[in-house]
Amino acid sequence: MLTEALKHHQNANLAKAKELYLEALQNSPDNHELLHLLGILHAQENDLTNAEQYIQKALELDPDNIFYLNSMGNIFKNSNKLTSAVKYYNKALKIEPNYAVAHNSIATILYAQNFFQQAEKHYQLALTINPEYADAHFNYALLLIKQNKKTEALTHLDSALKIEPDHPALHCKKAEILHHAATHHIRHPVLDTGSRSTHSVQHSKHAIDSAVKPQNDTEQLQNYELALYHYKEALKLDPLNTEIFHNIGAIFIEQGEPIAALKYFLRQLQIAPNFDAFYNIGVIYNYQDRFNDAIQYFKEALKLDPNHIATHINMAAIYLNVADFKKAEQHYIHIQKLQPDNTEINYILDAIHQNEAPKTAPQTYIKHLFDQYAPYYDEHLTKTLNYNVPQILRASIEPFLPAETSDSYTVLDLGCGTGLAGATMRKQATKLIGIDLSAKMIAIAKQKNIYDELHVADINDALAKYTDVDLIIAADTFVYLGDLDTLLTNIKQTLTPSGIFAFSVEKTYTYPYHLQQTARFAHSKKYIEKLADKLNLTILTCDNIKLRKEQSTIIEGYVFVINQSHSLKQTN
Q1: Which residue among 2, 376, 454, 473 is least enclosed by CB atoms within 10 Å?
Q2: pTM of the model
Q3: What residues are paired with 417 via a beta bridge?
Q4: Cis peptide, bond prior to residue 512, ω within 30 of zero
Q5: Ordered structural domains, the chain, with CATH
């Protein structure tokens, strides 16, 4: 009967096992092993009161049994009676000092109480006694992660995986370390606003405090690949774990593969509908310009969290993109009620209401907008919006470039983003410098190996650090700047006497500039001409261009090429 009961117990058929244990107990009421097994079964059912009673009876019959003492310690630990738990673990160690399980159990309590040094001592003792103790390796790895010793933690996780290769938690934890190492740092959710705003896909809920920074891009890619491998191994062992689907999706987002990510978020949603899945699917559909689909998923997310600011921001941004300003306004006003001092939201509402325009967009608005746009930026602009301003800018500059490449030709790319405009000037420049407020746009530009220098900075602050620049370019940078007086003055001082400056702006006939309901500035041709005249700059060309296509609307603009030397002639 006991053999059959154990078989049911091991197969997680607890009801049948309990029935047989109780029947056996009637025939043998003083069987302490049977009492202990019943205690364990009740603990598995989270019935800690009965679990304690059965194990206490077992201990009365066999008070020096280290396994029963450890089980009683576990009951008290699970009841959050930690002092009593440690007392029983220590009783077991007094009887058997080399009882590795008790050392591991004490260490987990000390770790939970932030007594890391003492916990480390007990983990090391457990592993000295039993080097093949997978749980101790795993728990010690968690402690090492907490102490920011990620390399050592990976060593212990690898040791545990050799012992238990089919343990999903081990694969998951190793994947988390590698995942966060690949991202260089933990990304905390930020408030994002704007016509292309979104909210970063969150990492694992069991976030690691900091990460091992990869030495180079190859190592970063290897970390991503290994993280994916271990997440997928964990998924084979635990195919209904929604968090693993979430984290795999996050990796694909970080690698700029939203379509690959979408599959995992959709699967996450099929298993268990939750806010994160609705939200992240909405974000991806938004960047595919599948606005109706995105809105449906964002609406489901708001049912679960009605005041989630980033979801309202994304909803508002979609309505802004499709020129449904009334609905956009409703969401922005909702955010404003939650955050009345949010300068970014106030800026956008000023644009929608066409209030008196500020001179520029808030820097936090620009930074947040493009930090979150970065993973999707290149594909969205080039494939969805038919964006070719960098090529048009290059063609406009071409007639004024030197006929022969000089030994020194410095190009400064203001608002460089991911390097779309900089790439068109790489062959011409002996030194190419990129400046942008968004660290994540700069990170992508760095991966392309286009620039000699890249800096996260405000463009006016950056201009003050450079002189004798031969060419300055700014593609779609001024849509977030209204007043250009100070900027053009700084550019004039940065250029060489024969240097040139080429830039694009959105077109308006309202003088001098106009903050549109899209929250982007448009500039009048007359305003640029007057500024150039005031600063003794020469407008070499001014071309009407089509900046991009949004929905069925063509966004028109100008490309200006300006020089401060009246004697500059075309070279072809």
Answers
A1: 2
A2: 0.68
A3: none
A4: yes
A5: 2-182 (1.25.40.10), 217-356 (1.25.40.10), 372-563 (3.40.50.150)
